[in-house]
Amino acid sequence: MQGSPPIWLPNCSRAAITGASSGLGAALAQALAGPGRILHLAGRDPARLGTTAASCRAAGATVTETAFDVTDAPAARAWIEGTGGLDLLVANAGTSAGTGGTSESPDQVARIFAVNLTGALNTILPALDLMRAQPPGPDGIRGRIAAIASIAAFVASPGAPAYSASKAALQRWTEATDATARRDGIRLHAICPGFIRTPMTAPNQFPMPLLMEPQEAARRSLGGIAQGRARVVFPWPVYAAARLMGALPPAWLSRLPSKAGSRE
């Protein structure tokens, strides 16, 4: 997406993105990058984060890059508060144990919830405080927060139980909080993509229907935010299949091959 015009979002000149080192996070940063845009990028890998930051600077954006783990709550809060003000936060950092057919270890389960749920909240909660103190824009919005959940949130996947459960919790919390945050002039958006071609999905050895490139997923995500949708879910055929599977009795789901649980 480097070299393309930045995606327009209303009153959004200052954005912060976690997990910006690669995949969807990098694609979102590059989609937003342009003259007059200020991007605060975070990730765990300084070298890969620097590559994303360089591409955004080449597109004309002003960029800061900070390496930290979202499970470090003080570091996450300091990063948010250090921005000085935000129009958009994208809580994108996430992890999975994979779908290799083996049970998740206790350490894996703890890590997945720590990153996908608590780690997301470690940036979202201080961002809510920051945005409440900001003056509203011309549209009455003080700020927007996008939490990257997953279509996996809508089905109890035997192949990735901690991943699907953590994303379900994040999706439900985000949508429920949006209903009350609107009173403060803040919008929250639960982004629920299907399969995306990223380093996380690269090891998958099973069919991934309607696999998307990160750039397309970024375009759809930002488009849904611009439209003001509390739930941004795509592609629709995969979403419909997930909702159908989610309506099945648990005993039926338990008969599915463990590798059927997917990662985004």
Structural features, described:
With 264 residues, the chain is α/β, with parallel strands linked by helices. The chain has a single domain (14-260), classed as Rossmann fold (3-Layer(aba) Sandwich), CATH 3.40.50. The protein has helices spanning 23-32, 46-58, 73-82, 106-132, 161-181, 214-226, 236-246, 250-253; strands at residues 14-17, 38-43, 62-67, 88-91, 143-148, 186-193, 231-234. A seven-stranded parallel beta sheet has the order 3-2-1-4-5-6-7, sandwiched between helices. α4 packs parallel to α5. It is globular, with a radius of gyration of 18 Å.
Which structural class matches the secondary elements? Answer: alpha/beta
Fraction of residues in helices? 40-55%
Main sheet: strands, sense, barrel: 7 strands, parallel
Mean pLDDT: 88
Total number of helical segments? 8
Task: Provide the fold topology.
Elements: E1 14-17, H1 23-32, E2 38-43, H2 46-58, E3 62-67, H3 73-82, E4 88-91, H4 106-132, E5 143-148, H5 161-181, E6 186-193, H6 214-226, E7 231-234, H7 236-246, H8 250-253
Parallel strand pairs: 1-2, 1-4, 2-3, 4-5, 5-6, 6-7
Helix pairs in contact: 1-2, 1-6, 3-4, 4-5
